[in-house]
Design a protein that fits this description.
single chain, 838 residues, alpha+beta, Jelly Rolls, Immunoglobulin-like, TIM Barrel, 5 domains, six-stranded antiparallel sheet, 47 strands, globular
Amino acid sequence: MDISLNGSDWKFKYYNIGEARGKQPFNPDFDISWWPNATVPGAAQKDLLRAGRIPDPYLDMNAQQIEWVPDRDWVYAKTFTMDPIPRDRKVRLHFEGIDYYADIYLNGKHLGRSENMFIPADFDVTDVLNYDGENRLVVIFDPAPAEIGQIGRTSLVRTYKTRMSYGWDFAVRLIPVGLWDDVRLIVTGTAYIADSWAHTELAEDLKSANLMMRTEVRADKRQTVMVQTRVFFEDTQVAAQNTSVAASGLTEITQPFAIKNPKLWWPNGHGDPNLYFAEVVVLSENGDELDRREFHFGLKRVRLIPNPGLAEELLPWNFEVNGKRIYLKGWNWVPADSMYGTVTRDRYEGLIRLAKEANVNLLRVWGGGLIEKEEFYDICDRLGIMVWQEFILSSSGIDNDPPTDPAYLNMIRRSAENIIPRRRNHACHAVWCGGNELTWTGAEDAAMRIMHEAVSMLDPQKIYVPTSPMRTFRPDEAKEIDIHGDWQYFGCDRHYEICNARLAAFHSEFGAEGAANIETIRDVVRDCELMPVSRKNELWTHRGDWWVNTEVLEGIFGPLKDIETFVRMSQFIQWEGLRYVVEQNRRRKYASGGTIPWQFNEPWPNLTCTNAVDYFLRPKPAYYAVKSAYEPVHVSASYAGLGWKPGEEFRADLWVNNSNGDLKGCAVRWTLLGTDGEVFGSGEKRLDLRENSAVKADEVVWRIEVGFERLFILEARVICPDGKELSKNSYIFSANPVPIFDRLLALPATTIEVEQGKGAAREDGRIEIPITVRNTGGNFAFFVKLSVDCPGWGVYFSRNHLLIAPGDSETVIAKCISRERTTKQPGPFMAQGWNTGK
């Protein structure tokens, strides 16, 4: 039985460095009644904000005013009562995550010390608890350790604390202190389950599976216990076994099971993420329940297999899941909040649901962030999102060499040995990685070897990658290897020259910069001047310094005179730049085994950054660009650049990717249009699309007339024989003199109409509503954004930020998921484009 000690009834206080222990707040008679309330899990900064002691660090430049917080002693205390327990019961006090150095006291007794935020602290408090009155639990924190931010030396890292907190290109310096994960009392008998692991092996033909349930029982005295294990799929028991053992100290019990016709766990887009349920119970000789463990697990097999044409001596980068080669459609994940202890299940759910809806099948959990909370992996299990989990080690700008001193190596060994057992049962988990952008010389160094040994011992069926990338993160040096980079848009010609020449076998990190949504900017900037957008404006150096690209943008568009224009043009470049890299990688399937853009989310609301979903869970246009590029059947164009000259020949190659089964007799249609809808050229090719293929479908060739100085749009579609549209894509080009895209700042106006269809309710309570947007004017409607204000609902659009030709229409499906009981239905839905008026 677990008794949660989480909640908002904690108290907290800070002291000068070294002062807290001298005040002895751990004494039960110490008066804490006047201390402010605190919430656990959480962070000191959030508790100070709730208490009105600090300004909101997410507004303006306020974060600079709270940098003193981690440089104090902190005391967290909770008073609670507890019912008596039978004499044969034991109680453990369990801290899932303490951040960072801290001493723990219960009723004045010092229980021990914690020195790692990813190693739980666990204490037997059976004889320390007061069952007849109040208990006082006190945690005294040292100041946060001094660590290395983004620019420094990895060789100087000495702790296992989240590196991002010390300042990164997407995260302000905000160093949390506190109880960042669950606190609970665990009541058991005189023997309890220390660990239970569902170790699974699928037969080569996938028609059966061997399950080895390995349970560790810890007993404080020698005794005979029975381990009773039952395995269910949905409501049906599929396996059961009882095993009696003489337990003393730590005893491992192994129970083999055979599962026929296994229900496999499949990643998003390839099948159902089927989950089995295990119930492990420890019974005493007389049949009393001593402890139980319940968890879900999945039956899957993930392998790396060679890329076609890849040199034999290089690591293969094609993922095979359950015998099927799968193109990896990923995204890089960073902590969901700078105050990561405050992240709720709802926040995880909202973000991971956005990833699922974007056709993502893997999230790479970056090594400068977290081993995430249990809820993160639970949700990925259920939604079919594979997880690439990196250990907490990252590059640092000056050197990327992991430390080699014995104390550090011992610390990372203990960390890995604690982390792996707590995450290995998750069906979503596919890859362990030693860290982000560590120096790689072709052989594992001491730190990488230690992590590899831990994975081999504790989770041997998982893929282990020493670091990401494996060789280099300079794209101009990348030939047939895993690479990182680039992270910016290099211009209307250079960007495509780099992308079209890239021959990487795997692309595990790259990005493009783009401004935050205008709503987000208005939400977080209250008392500062937004203009000019420049590094000479301290606001922009505070909230996106690395990604302020005004000079690049004005070279493309001309002067950007207001914040709304800057946001539009910046987001257009991120939309275009990011999707081109993703599409180019996918066109090379399976010579390229996968693509993982940087970055999906952000932990703090920047004004400009490489994220696709902002802090408030608002997708940027780039999110929808990648969502479209990841659709099962996708048409894309390969070209040399966005700027063309009158008199030259415009050329583009059309490609179709197909992740579905064979599709026969499909039509690939293209049209070149002016902004007023004038048709300059068109074509159609019919072809069969093989399963899991990427094929060049057609060539677009058009001679641009002398004197033609206009924007033009390439529209491409894939149509089934029955007329159903499987994919549509639009590209904007210009034959304008420099700046080539200044016409985007003065688009001719058009008008649109929005029609909301009748929602189709599903058994799970979701509603799918068709929204049709018609362009009723005489010009293209640019970047029409659908939105809706319906509290209590999560709304996920199948497409957004639409380009609609005059006289044409687009139908978008709004998937609506109820977050709370509400009688208000979703809607009305609204739409507004760059040139459609209010």
